[in-house]
Amino acid sequence: MPPSRARSTTALALLVLATTTATACTAVEHGATAGHHTAATPPAHANRQAEQLQLPLDAYASSVAETHLVEDAQDVLMRRCMSDLGMEWKALPRVAARDIEPPNLGRYGAGEADALRYGYHPRPDPQSVVRRNRAWEEREALPAEVQHAAYGASGKGGCLKTARHQLAGDTAPPDFHAFNQLTGTALETSRRAPEVRAVLRRWHTCMAKAGFDYKEPMAAAASERWKTSAPTPAERATARADAACQRSVKVVKVWSAAEIRVQRRLIEQNAGRLDEAKARKDRWLAAARRVLSQ
């Protein structure tokens, strides 16, 4: 079987926190409907703030673009290996740079641009992302003989093992366990900071005035009501009010400042683990760039 495609570590951290928050809090809508809110276009600066958010731990993660870079270089080497075995290997389609979402978009809750159209549902994948995902799915349906040549019996052998060794030698693949653990810790720790608790109380008051009763943005986003195939009018209304209240009380500005302080402290406390993980990542990226430049 082909290796699993990369997932966003930030999204994983958010999911864990959102689930915890939803379990701990009771969120009840007070009869709010889409008709109670206007679908005004959000201010450009509000969108830019979320899109441009950078956190200290980002340096130790692997961005989507970096993950694609390694996958693309690996594909080049796998195609050579498979060709030597008399088999074709189709490279993954490239994802357009404009189609890659910023790494921390939505980290503290709904963004206004998406709330207007999608509520709390994820935005549809752009076509270049759809094409790459489809190519991954096609690999899962390759004939058994081709899959065995590509991945071996274990899923980590065959030409994949050969390509990885040619790419980075004995350098182990990047391990993001430290980042995954610490980014979740930073999010939860910063949520308990006095200034963040205060801004979340102001957000709660703002939402209550709009007819919604949620303790904080994560609880709103994790509501069981939104587990539908498409966004409902009530979901869009809730998400719009959520995002507008976040902008009004400056949730992103206050929470990100608190989390930046927490992350810097965690980096100092875990410097050895993080530096080793980053060194491994950087060696793989350098090797991938050499392969793709040939």
Question: Would you mind describing this structure in some detail?
Answer:
The chain has one domain. Helix content is 61%, strand content 1%. The chain has helices at residues 9-24, 44-51, 64-84, 112-118, 127-140, 144-151, 158-168, 177-191, 194-209, 217-221, 233-249, 251-269, 271-293, and strands at residues 28-29, 212-213. A two-stranded antiparallel ribbon has the order 1-2. Helix 6 runs parallel beside helix 7 (158-168). The longest helix is centred in the last third of the chain and has 23 residues, at 271-293. The chain is globular. It starts with 8 loop residues before the first helix and ends with a helix.
Keywords:
294 residues; mainly alpha; two-stranded antiparallel sheet; 61% helix; 1% strand
